[in-house]
Amino acid sequence: QVQLVESGGGLVQAGGSLRLSCAASGSIFSINAMGWYRQAPGKQRELVAIITSSGTTTYADSAKGRFTLSRDNAKNTVYLQMNSLKPEDTAVYYCYGVVTFRPYWGQGTQVTVSS
């Protein structure tokens, strides 16, 4: 079994920054991809950013230029640096991982951006 443990959410003013972390643990043979989705109230869950094992990173248009996804392979951890946050970034952020070709989700961490 694989667990994804998130940290770093919270409340921040518009224009501020937050850094989310997600660490994978458990029976890990290979991590095929890891990243973040988010879900705002009344909306569908959407991709924020994801990185593959080869290092290819994909960002949502809303994240480009403001968010940076990075990884520490030795720690099986990804980081989402979020700058210039906007109220519309308010959502529950979920870590997502494909580990040994199986999908896993974290519990979610709340990010609230006040105007």
Using only C-alpha atoms, the radius of gyration works out to 13 Å
Largest sheet report: 7 strands, mixed
Given the C-alpha coordinates, what overall shape results? globular
Distance between the termini: 40 Å
Overall average residue pLDDT: 96
Strand content: over 45%
Helix fraction? under 10%
Give start-end ranges of low-pLDDT stretches: none
Judged by helices, strands and strand pairing, the structural class is: mainly beta
Q: Helix-strand pattern, N to C?
A: EEEEEEEEEEE
- SS field, number of helical segments: 0
User: Number of DSSP strands?
Assistant: 11
Gist?
This protein is mainly beta.
Could you characterize what this model shows?
This protein is mainly β and 115 residues long. 0% of the residues lie in helices and 60% in strands. It is built from no helices and eleven strands. It has strands at 2-7, 10-13, 18-26, 31-39, 46-52, 57-59, 67-72, 77-82, 91-99, 102-105, 109-114. Strands 2, 4, 5, 6, 9, 10 and 11 form a seven-stranded mixed sheet that branches. A hairpin with a 4-residue loop joins strand 7 and strand 8.
